[in-house]
Amino acid sequence: MRGRSTTPFDHLVVGLGNPGKEYAGTRHNVGQQVVSLLAERHGAAMKGGRDNALVGEARFGPPGTDAPRVVLAFPLTYMNESGLAVRSLVRRYGIDDAAKLVIVHDELDLEPTTVRVKVGGGLAGHNGLRSIVQHLGTQDFVRVRIGVGKPPSKERGAGHVLSKLPTRQRELFDVAVQEAADAVELIVAESPDAAMRRFNTKRVPEA
Question: How far apart are the C-alpha atoms of 68 and 15, rounded to whole Å?
Fold first, then answer.
């Protein structure tokens, strides 16, 4: 991972999902919701650009301080081509270490509304992660994972992640999105290990 920016940023946070109103509020787009919440919290205006993504820049800390500089992004490619946008953003913002890249995404292998943090590891069949690994040549980036649960059968997998959430689950997922945003902030302020200690032992509410 070799950056090309003359002013490297401290972190790049990417929320995965599919573009378009028809995908808003689906399980597959919880990563996008986390990035949107972080942009709101830190006053980052998300704008389209040359990187096939909506991008915002912010400092995660009090105004006027030497707080970490963070790029927030949501790829405008479809999920299975997320790596195109991520590779371009990594180069432009000088992200030269996989530990500075945080990917927020849904995960079938976790119970609904579970928030977990990990560094590296397998891809759990996630097409967005697979694309990122293919384009970056590493899987050692940080992941903030939001569980969406498994579908009743493999054949219904696409329908499961692309469907809108029921009202009661929506309320629980709103809380999970807030917790995932908190996890990203802790990763930036301290470390992935600190976020893992805090979030990987939390109990999950009944969905």
Answer: 19
Concerning whether 105 is annotated as a catalytic residue, the answer is: no
CA quadruple 1, 129, 194, 65: dihedral positive or negative?
positive
pLDDT digits (tens, 9 = 90+) for 140-192: 999 999 998 766 545 444 455 556 666 677 788 899 999 999 999 999 999 99
Structure tokens at 104: 């927020």
What is the Cα Rg of the chain in Å?
A: 16
- C-alpha to C-alpha distances, 169 to 26, 35, 41, 130, 191, nearest whole angstrom: 11, 20, 23, 27, 30
The pLDDT of residue 145: 96
Strand order in the sheet with 53-59: 47-48, 53-59, 69-75, 11-15, 101-107, 142-147, 115-119
Q: Which of 11, 28, 42, 105 is catalytic?
A: 28
pLDDT digits (tens, 9 = 90+) for 63-112: 777 899 999 999 999 999 999 999 999 999 999 999 999 999 999 889 98
Which domains occur in the chain, in start order? 11-199 (3.40.50.1470)
Contact (CB, 8 A) for 56 and 71? yes
- 6, 40, 100, 169, 200 from 26: Cα distances, Å: 37, 20, 27, 11, 24
In this structure, the number of other CB atoms found within 10 A of the CB of residue 154 comes to 11
Whole-prediction pTM: 0.89
